Amino acid sequence: MSDAHDDETEPAEPIVSTQTAPRQRAVASTETRRQPPYHVIILNDEEHSFPYVIELLMKLFGHPLATAEELTLRIHTAGRAVVYTTHREKAELKRDQVLAYGPDPRMAMISKGPLGCYIEPAPID
């Protein structure tokens, strides 16, 4: 006795081919926003020598000798000078580096601490 199902073949499952269109990448606008500028300002005092200030400006800010000398003279005559302008985070870092530079070893008898230094927002052009 044969089963009726033996003679019947089950239909094969249909083969479905799906093709998807290649995804298009969303083009995001890449706007660059400038961060507001900040000035790093060094104050004059009588506890630090010209060579100390010149050295500090060259090492911490990368100023060439002529620029460091000019800025040191400006600090001395005007009582303060903008020595660097950058975004806030870097200005804070540079201020902290100036404060960490410590007293002037050339004037050990009177130099008890770092140069006065602070940051302030720079005017936006």
Describe the structure.
This protein is an alpha+beta fold and 125 residues long. It has a domain at 34-45 and 92-116. The chain is built from 4 helices and 3 strands, in the order αβααβαβ. It is elongated and about 100 Å long. The relative contact order is 0.22. The mean pLDDT is 86.
Helical coverage, percent range: 25-40%
**Anisotropy-based shape:** elongated
Gap between N and C termini, in Å?
99 Å
H/E element order: HEHHEHE
Percent range for β-strand residues: 15-25%
Radius of gyration: 35 Å
Largest sheet: 3 strands, antiparallel
Seen as an oligomer or otherwise, the chain set is single chain
Strand arrangement in the largest pleated sheet = 2-1-3
Short description:
Helix content is 34%, strand content 16%.
Question: Any key phrases for this structure?
Answer:
elongated; alpha+beta; 16% strand; three-stranded antiparallel β-sheet
